[in-house]
Write a structure and sequence with these properties.
Elements lengths: L4 H16 L3 E2 H8 L3 H12 L13 E6 L2 E6 L11 H14 L7 H17 L2 H8 L15 H12 L1 E7 L8 E7 L3 E3 L2 E8 L4 E6 L3 E10 L8 H7 L10 E7 L1 H10 L5 E3 L5 E7 L2 H9 L5 E5 L1 H18 L1
Antiparallel strand pairs: 1-3, 2-3, 4-5, 4-9, 5-7, 6-7, 7-8, 10-12, 10-13, 11-12
Helix pairs in contact: 1-3, 4-5, 10-11
Length: about 325
Amino acid sequence: MNLSLETVLRCLDILPLVRENQGIQLAELAQRSGIDEKTIVDQLIPTLMLCGAPPYMPHDYVSIWLEGDHVYVEFADHFRRPVTLLPVEITALHLALTSAARPGEHDPAVRRRIEQLREKIERALPPQQRVFLEESNRISLSDHPDQGSPILEQVRRAVAERRKIEIEYLSFGDSRIKTRVAHPHAILVRDGVTYLPCFDELRDHLVTFRLDRINQVRVLGDHFEPVDSFDVEKLAREGFSRPAEDDEFDVRLEARGSAARQLAETLDQRQWRWLDDERLEIRLATSRPRSVVRWSFRFGPDLVIVEPESLRELAREELAEIAGRHS
């Protein structure tokens, strides 16, 4: 079952309303949520009834039902236990609540509860973690997966002091380590991986390095000024896959099966679209075509390069070399 983000958000909109107003009339729920009655009955309630572990028994997580024109909801007992969150999860929740609490976008009662929850988070956080809420433009969270890495400690110092660094970096798909001089702007964690957004002096624009691909780092004596257009919150929200200024190849690929489902979950939504129930079209821009070819091989026959033809020819050359080495 493929759910749109809009459907998921609508489900989340009606849940607190029903929970706080058990037996709320369908017409009132529609009026307070801004969602028409037909959508609630035909789409949202059936979707919420699938919020469980296979075979999707309602009592596993959420049980919601309609009696006449009254709506009721119950939650599984394990939702009554206190929730334990990591610092990065607390920070993300606070930022989400801050964005959601804009006047006029929600029912007044819901907006008031959101504000209360946001204030509760602020009161509960110790001072050393509260700084992440106050300085969201400098993200350097204490629970990095690379915690204790000497490279991470050097990078932290460079970011804090706005010092240039010289790194030895192994790019994806390459076998040669390259030396780069970079201006580290922040440290970000995304999907359990630590990234370093930098201004790269060689490419002359902002790029993002993976910390686990940096072999060595040296903090230089020279200072730098951050790029005016750099926005760490926008970068964290939109991801790192935007085309660079010198990208030369507009690549179109087609995925099927498990590759299609995996890529739809991991790539930026602006980079793909479903052609039908099985086929996913992906569009990428890159200045490193060989890396794209080798990345596509990870998915075997489930991911095919459609265009440009020059990239398809490069893929055929790579496959011929692989076949030759195995003959």
